[in-house]
Amino acid sequence: MSTIKSGGKTWMAGLLTASVASLCCITPVIALFSGATGFASTFSWLEPYRSCLISLSIAALAFAWYQKLKPQKTAMDCACEEDKPSFWQTKTFLGIVTVLAFLLMAFPKYAHIFYPKTEKKEIVIIDKSNIQQVKLNIKGMTCEACSETINLALSKVPGVLEYKTEFANGSSTIKFDNSKTVEQAIINAVNKTGFKVIDVKNVQQP
User: Fold this and answer.
1) Dihedral angle at the C-alpha atoms of 71, 74, 79, 83, nearest 10 degrees?
2) Cα–Cα 20 to 30 A to 155, which of 23, 55, 133, 162?
3) Residue 35: is its pLDDT beyond 80?
4) pLDDT of residue 1
5) Handedness of CA 71, 73, 77, 79 (dihedral sign)
6) 47 Cβ contact partners less than 8 Å away, ≥ 6 residues apart
7) Tens digits of per-residue pLDDT, 118-169?
8) How do residues 79-120 score in pLDDT, each as one tens digit?
């Protein structure tokens, strides 16, 4: 009985740590579907601990499988029938939990598929002298989901022509028509996602 209980606690710990490990990337997707994009960066502070949490999750699941697969000691003098384990105690259930945990841990790799494709805006007439380009340094981005959240916000700003957001270096390069929008409107759009613009640099047109 103690083995079953400890095994149950172990798989729960593995699933929980797997969930927490990817919260920084799961939250922006939840924010997208809920419409409350302001809390997209809520768990970005967890990113430095991600590798540690993943290691803990894998260790917990490995121990759960060890508990499940190791030979069980049976009393030789017991004539009673062994109780059939419930579904929650089977290898099938532990297999489902393991797959779910690994899907959660790998979430940052495929989070972008949940975001709608942003269509390029058609520009009819633009005075080239009005085109300006800036590079924003943004705090809080940890994965592709964060980049997509910011890109989606930028796509809704009138006058923004092009944008390229890179979570790896924490920046977004935006080209816009300064006769239709201003730099501060772009900064505000990014800040509303929960991520914070910490620096702005004007980029010379090629």
Assistant:
1) -60
2) 23
3) no
4) 44
5) negative
6) 24, 142
7) 666 555 556 788 899 999 999 989 888 899 999 999 999 999 999 999 998 9
8) 555 567 788 778 898 899 999 999 989 888 888 788 877 666
pLDDT, tens digit, 9 for 90 and up, residues 38-58: 777 788 888 888 899 999 999
Can you read off the two tokens belonging to residue 197?
Answer: 């613009």
Structure tokens of 102? 């690994």
C-alpha dihedral (160, 173, 144, 115), degrees to nearest 10: 10
For residue 96, give every residue at least 6 positions away whose Cβ sits within 8 Å of its Cβ, in sequence order, or none: none
C-alpha to C-alpha distance for 176 and 130, rounded to whole angstroms: 8
Structure tokens belonging to residue 175: 């080209």
Q: What is the model's pTM?
A: 0.73
Report the C-alpha gap between 93 and 95 in whole angstroms.
5
pLDDT digits (tens, 9 = 90+) for 169-191: 999 999 999 999 999 999 999 99
Residues near 161 by Cβ (< 8 Å), separated by ≥ 6?
121, 123, 126, 131, 175, 176, 177
